């Protein structure tokens, strides 16, 4: 050993008891999990709230996807639609006879295989502008129970499905009590009629039978 040089003795390290270390870690983890685990009542409450949230979200999706089937038609270059479940048939307008003492929107009556039907012009019924050069050669026959009448049309465009969520509930240019006879207007500016309320209005329906 060199003079003036001090050498420290080596420190003897104790052996690590790894089994004890793992036991303590397992105990700590178990205690932590137990502390964060909710009881039965809390678990039931959380699951119930999650179920309600999922049901509400599902209901919103179903409402957004809900659709109605309509018959779309043109009248003086304006697009209209009526639910197909109320449409019995489409026929040509023939032998229209005027009817005195009726509102302006009732154009007259026709004889359809022994049934006398009133024919209405939805433009006049809703006080909408009468534009274009209409052919006025079609009638959409609406029926519910024993109530039946015809709606004037120029061209039948066909049957289509409309998402209910896309129908605006009001028509910006329409005011007054007759607004309730509309389901609304689509983003394509197609006016959707409420056939159920139209049929329920006795003021626009003429019900007669022709004796054979």
Description:
The protein is of the alpha+beta class and 212 residues long. It folds into 2 domains: 18-65; 67-209, CheA-289, Domain 4 (OB fold (Dihydrolipoamide Acetyltransferase, E2P)), CATH 2.40.50.180. 26% of the residues lie in helices and 31% in strands. It contains 4 helices and 11 strands, in the order ααβββββαβββββαβ. It has helices spanning 18-36, 40-65, 122-125, 195-200, and strands at residues 67-75, 78-83, 87-92, 106-112, 115-120, 138-144, 147-153, 155-163, 182-185, 191-193, 208-209. Strands 3, 4, 5, 6, 7 and 11 form a 6-stranded mixed sheet that branches. A 5-stranded mixed sheet has the order 8-1-2-10-9. Strand 1 (67-75) and strand 2 form a beta hairpin. The longest helix is centred in the N-terminal third of the chain and has 26 residues, at 40-65. It is rod-shaped. The relative contact order is 0.16.
Q: Nutshell version of this structure?
A:
Helix content is 26%, strand content 31%.
Give me the strand/helix succession: HHEEEEEHEEEEEHE
What is the end-to-end distance?
Answer: 141 Å
CATH architecture of the largest domain: Beta Barrel
What is the CA-atom radius of gyration, in angstroms?
38 Å
Number of helices: 4
Mean pLDDT: 76
The CATH class of the largest domain, by name, is Mainly Beta
The CATH H-level superfamily of the largest domain is: CheA-289, Domain 4
What's the shape? Answer: rod-shaped
Instruction: Kindly report the CATH topology of the largest domain.
Output: OB fold (Dihydrolipoamide Acetyltransferase, E2P)
Question: How many beta-strand runs?
Answer: 11
Tally of structural domains: 2
Instruction: Determine the fraction of residues in helical runs and give it as a percent range.
Output: 25-40%
Largest sheet: 6 strands, mixed
Q: Give the amount of beta strand, in percent.
A: 25-35%
Structural class: alpha+beta
Low-confidence stretches: none
């Amino acid at each position: 050993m060199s003079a003036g040089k001090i050498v420290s003795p080596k420190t003897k390290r104790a052996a690590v008891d790894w089994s004890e270390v793992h036991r303590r870690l397992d105990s700590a983890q178990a205690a932590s999990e137990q502390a964060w685990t909710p009881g039965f009542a809390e678990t039931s409450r959380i699951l119930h709230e999650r179920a309600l949230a999922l049901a509400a979200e599902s209901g919103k999706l179903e409402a957004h996807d809900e659709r109605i089937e309509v018959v779309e038609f043109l009248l003086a270059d304006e697009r209209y639609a009526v639910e197909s479940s109320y449409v019995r048939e489409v026929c040509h307008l023939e032998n229209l006879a005027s009817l005195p003492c009726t509102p302006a929107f009732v154009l007259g009556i026709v004889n359809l295989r022994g049934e006398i039907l009133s024919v209405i012009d939805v433009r006049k019924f809703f006080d909408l502008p009468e534009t274009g050069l209409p052919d006025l050669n079609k009638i959409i026959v609406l029926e519910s129970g024993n109530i039946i009448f015809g709606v004037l049309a120029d061209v039948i465009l066909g049957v289509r499905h409309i998402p209910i969520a896309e129908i605006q509930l009001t028509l910006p240019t329409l005011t007054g009590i007759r607004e309730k006879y509309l389901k609304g207007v689509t983003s394509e500016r197609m006016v959707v009629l409420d056939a159920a309320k139209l049929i329920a209005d006795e003021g626009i329906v003429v019900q007669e039978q022709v004796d054979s």
